[in-house]
Amino acid sequence: MKQLPVKLRIDGVPRVTCRHPWSQGLVQDIQVNEASTNEETKLEPYDNTIEDNVQNEAGNRNKRKTLINRLLPSAVCPQQSLPLYLFTAAILLLLLWGVLYTLFKDLVAPRGPLFQMLFLFILAYLAGQFTSLCRLPPLLGMLVTGIALRNVGFFHMTGIFVDLVSTLRNTAMVVILIKAGLGLDAGALRRLSLIVVRLAFIPCLAEAATVCLVSHFLLGYSWLWGLLLGFILGAVSPAVVVPSLLTLKEKGYGEDKGISTLVVAASSIDDIAAISGFGIVLSVIFSQGKIVNDI
Fold it and tell me: Do 150 and 165 reside in the same domain of the chain?
């Protein structure tokens, strides 16, 4: 028997053409069976709900992983980040307080002097960070914190801790001045030596004389007390000037002209001149002998 020729229509249903009349019924059966098969194999409309749920769950897992990666980028060797830094600082402070409490007991209790100093340090540091976010010097927040705690009666030192606070204050000043000295440029300092001397002494003496005149005529102070007040107000605070200038130096501002070296050196000498003048005037005020000997 010869193979029946097959032709495909556009709808995909095969059409068999044959010359023998007995094959017409066979062709009709083949067409009916294939049409029913195509109807059965038609797919129902696809439901996107399941796929959307799967995608949403995958997105939520990715968000959770992203949050975990931000907080803890690596479980083995964690990188430096703000949450980890705060967590580490809190753990270290708690351990330090626990060790001090086992050694000194009542001195580190919540109303003890060491606890007050530790609390003042932490709160002042946090206030300084907050003020730095507001584009203000961190020292401003620290000063406001100290003034507030002192006036509400929380911070009150007695006994040997008064001397300890004074020692810490002097140590902080020494550290700031050493840091300023290490940041000086020797070449720029030699080139600007005369300008440094003028910038150190002339403003200090001018401020002291101006305050002396104003306090004498407006406040009724004597000349010596007015001059003493002038040297107090004329001193430059390295705690304010030095950190700001070192920050500008790290960013590269004024390096060609030696601006940071000029201001840091002048402010240091200005403090020396103000402290020396204050000591001389104070000794003259409370002297009982000749003024020449006191000077």
Answer: no
